[in-house]
Design brief:
single chain; mainly alpha; Rossmann fold; Tyrosyl-Transfer RNA Synthetase; 2 domains; three-stranded antiparallel β-sheet; 8 strands
Length: about 350
């Protein structure tokens, strides 16, 4: 294999949002256009089963995400685009890999603990095995680079540990996958807390949102008085006191997130201008938010136009999915056969 392989995927829990776009798809596009890499991008529909979901929504989302991929610029002539569950080898391979990782290791992962808190009534074996299935997704194609958000780093470390153990115990030659970082590897929530997530209502902007919807969502980002100081990246609002003194108000995560969005869509210089204004004459957030909404829509408009073309040509989408599923299955079958032989199953 002359080229290094890349594997990444997004769960089928809803249409893609800005967090997916900057945290994963931007990296996918960069690697797709690099001749040194062979790229495979999937819809992680098996991973969707690890948390509560609606059956009909899953059926629809599996297809919608492929359309989002294509609309954002992923090219089936350059990348293999496929649905995870259409390749039966992923689940089979995850079982083989689970034999070299302990339950204790899985239980201590911070991502598992977070999901247990979020879904205390749905702590299943599928949820516990999520990182093992992710390792299977990557190693079954012997991928070396994975463009995902920084929050997935603990799972990549599990994949590296599994690769080392399989190589040590069975003489396989799996590479230890590394994260491929993008400029927006962690996109903050619109609520001011945590990252942008489809599972948190009001935290995200979909790639399909129109300008008015984007304006309404941006308008809800929590802010402060508009004037204050910035101390080590923390925005601290001030208000005048009767004796001409000032009182510091609690730091605002919302303002910090707003400025991070400004940097993503308008650049570092524009953020610097607004930061200076915040510490001098103050900001009018209605103007800043409207500027941001316009910039986001300008970025998304070409994607939305391409998406409309694809929705009007369902046969083309069906063909892309079918061809991608077949290509991925052929590649995976070769590695599964190799591992079955080395583990004594053939």
């Amino acid at each position: 294999m002359n080229k290094k392989r890349v594997l990444s995927g997004i769960r089928a829990t809803g249409r893609l949002h800005l967090g997916n776009y900057f945290g994963a798809i931007k990296g996918m596009l960069t690697l797709q256009d690099d001749p040194e890499f062979e790229t495979l991008y999937m819809v992680a529909d098996l991973h969707t089963l690890t948390t509560p979901y609606q059956v009909e929504e899953l059926r629809q989302n599996r297809r919608e995400i492929i359309i989002d991929y294509l609309a954002a610029g992923l090219d089936p002539e350059k990348s293999i685009l496929f649905q995870q569950s259409a390749n039966p080898h992923h689940a089979e391979f995850a079982f083989y890999l689970s034999s070299v990782v302990t339950i204790a290791k899985m239980q201590h992962l911070p991502t598992f603990k977070d999901k247990v808190k979020q879904y205390p009534q749905y702590v299943t074996m599928a949820l516990l095995n999520y990182p093992v299935l992710m390792a299977a997704d990557i190693l079954i194609y012997k991928a070396s680079d994975v463009p995902v958000g920084i929050d997935q780093e603990p799972h990549l470390e599990v994949a590296r540990e599994i690769a080392r153990r399989m190589n040590q115990d069975y003489g396989t030659d799996f590479p230890e996958p590394q994260i491929f970082k993008t400029i927006g590897e962690y996109v903050s929530s619109l609520t001011g807390e945590g990252k942008m997530s489809k599972s948190v209502e009001g935290s995200y902007i979909n790639l399909t949102d129109d300008l008015e919807t984007i304006r309404k969502k941006i308008a809800k980002i929590p802010t402060d008085s508009g004037k204050g100081i910035i101390d080590k990246g923390v925005y601290i609002s001030r208000s005048a006191m009767p004796n001409n003194g000032v009182v510091a108000i609690a730091p605002s995560n919302g303002v910090k997130n707003l400025m991070e969005f400004i940097e993503l869509f308008k650049g570092k210089e524009r953020r610097k201008e607004l930061d200076n204004q915040y510490q001098d004459v103050g900001l009018r957030y209605s103007e800043v938010k409207n500027e941001l909404a316009e910039a986001i829509y300008q970025e998304l408009q070409p994607i939305q136009e391409k998406r409309q073309e694809l929705e009007n040509n369902p046969q083309k989408v069906d063909s892309i999915i079918s061809v991608g599923n077949e290509k991925a299955t052929v590649l995976a079958s070769e590695v599964v056969k190799e591992v079955r032989e080395k583990m004594g199953l053939l």
